[in-house]
Amino acid sequence: DIQLTQSPSSLSASVGDTVTITCQASQDITNYLNWYQQKPGKAPKLLIYDAYNLQTGVPIRFSGSASGPLFTFTISGLQPEDIATYYCQQYEKLPLTFGPGTKVEIK
Amino acid sequence: EVVLLESGGGLVRPGGSHRLSCAASGFTFTNYAMNWVRQAPGKGLEWVSGISASGGGTYYAHSVQGRFTISRDTSKNTIYLHLTGLSPEDTAMYFCAKGDQPTVTTFEFWGPGTQVTVSS
Asked: Between A and B, how many residue pairs show a Cβ–Cβ distance under 8 A?
């Protein structure tokens, strides 16, 4: 199975800061990687698909990039409503797998 | 508007069986794969099972292979997850998720979830 490693596991940042989360796959997944946001007590929400593409209706402060096996998720200008846990997910191979999540808090 | 609504959660005894349902609306049901994803209390997300748009392909996580069965009813725009051989490790919120294409890949929209608790 493809393992996804996310870093950091949690972070605390101030409103307006740029926040970066990384996700590394245990093998090549091309760009078959998505990013989800899960707010407490809610279902996850798709933010970024295919590594780079912003899902319809998602604010442009969210972005994704890739460099080889390393994928990066960025929030440019953290907002209070961005408090959540963020997960990466690969679909290069079944079983589909998620990273362990990164909890983002406001400082 | 895409709407997914899970139902059927509850308290189940270890070793027991149960069936979850997910009613879908707001999109052409037969064009998209559908999935079940679960989240144990305080833990991360785990893909459980997926079914292709045609229903011809069904896929499972290793942890549930042979115990869970996914199916879809196009006349009711509903998918099901039949759970058997339940253990406390299956206690979780179970989410239904719509794919973004006919094959099992991405979780584009999610339902609010239904809680399954396995306990004696």
From this structure: 58
